[in-house]
Amino acid sequence: MFKVQLSTVTASIGLAAFATLLLSPPASADTITIPTSSFDSTSSLEQYWNYNYPWGDTHNGAARMSSDHVSASGGVLTLTAVPASDSDSDIHYHSGTIYAKEQVNVDGTDAVGYQVEGEFIAPTTKGTWPAFWLNAASGWPPESDIAEWKGERTDQIWFNTFNTSSQVASKVVTWPDDGNYHAVKGVLRTIPGNSADLSIEYYLDGTLQATHTAAGYVGKALNLIIDLQMEGSSGSPGPTGTTTFKIRNVQMTKLTS
């Protein structure tokens, strides 16, 4: 059977062309760099994620992060914030944050884009500040907030793109705060004829909410962060009890076409 097929192929395209076909590498394909299974267990979590922020255990809010407030089981990541009992006047909560070991870097050659997505049950009360975001691995900006919830204005979600500290594109829409999981997605892609900037599309439950131009983002490495920060930009005082942020089906895909 193989000899018949081989003869047929070589007769139609020529022996030299057939040899080239055999030796050519397969066409590139999109690559899942973080699978949805990364929250199946603690060991799965630690295979793909680090604890805290890339720079430490605090950031622009009133919570100090530790692995004690991070759990992963059955495909669900849970970040938990509890009021602090210590005497540090700047820290009012102990909470949890993780960041991906795989960075996002749209260089225009190996990767022409990235798709980052997940499903969330996010707290939106005053003083709660959960987020799913990309932050510059070196310097700042760039920053892309694929989802940011700030309890100063409840039942809303922010999609933000920081080009500079003062040049920020934002879209604020209603968050369906019904206690169910809802899907958020950010798609970063190169722009034809533009070697410096990216396009970022922001989605909520499969519906496009905003498209921003991310100036100078090509070739800039970004860390994917999931955190439950407290107070800060979300107002104060925050909750007096335990706050939880639940996340599932997070996936990062490197786009090559």
Could you report the average pLDDT, rounded to the nearest whole number? 90
Number of distinct helices: 3
Task: Please compute the radius of gyration using only Cα atoms.
Answer: 22 Å
Q: Percent of residues in helical segments?
A: 10-25%
How many distinct beta strands?
A: 17
CATH topology: Jelly Rolls
Structural class of the secondary structure composition?
mainly beta
Unreliable stretches (pLDDT < 50, length at least 5) are 1-13, 15-27
Name of the CATH architecture: Sandwich
For the terminal residues, how far apart are their CA atoms? 35 Å
Mind describing the biggest β-sheet?
A: 10 strands, mixed
Q: Give the number of domains.
A: 1
The arrangement of helices and strands along the chain is HHEHEEEEEEEEEEEEEEEE
Shape: globular
Name of the CATH first level: Mainly Beta
Strand content: over 45%
GO molecular function, one term: hydrolase activity, hydrolyzing O-glycosyl compounds
Protein name: GH16 domain-containing protein
Organism: Gloeophyllum trabeum (strain ATCC 11539 / FP-39264 / Madison 617)
Keywords: Signal
Structure explained in plain terms:
This protein is mainly beta and 257 residues long. The chain has one domain: Jelly Rolls (Sandwich). Helix content is 11%, strand content 46%. The protein is built from three helices and 17 strands. The strands form two sheets. Strands 1, 3, 4, 5, 6, 8, 13, 14, 15 and 17 form a ten-stranded mixed β-sheet that branches. It has a seven-stranded antiparallel β-sheet with strand order 2-7-16-9-10-11-12. A hairpin with a 2-residue loop joins strand 14 and strand 15. The N terminus is likely disordered.
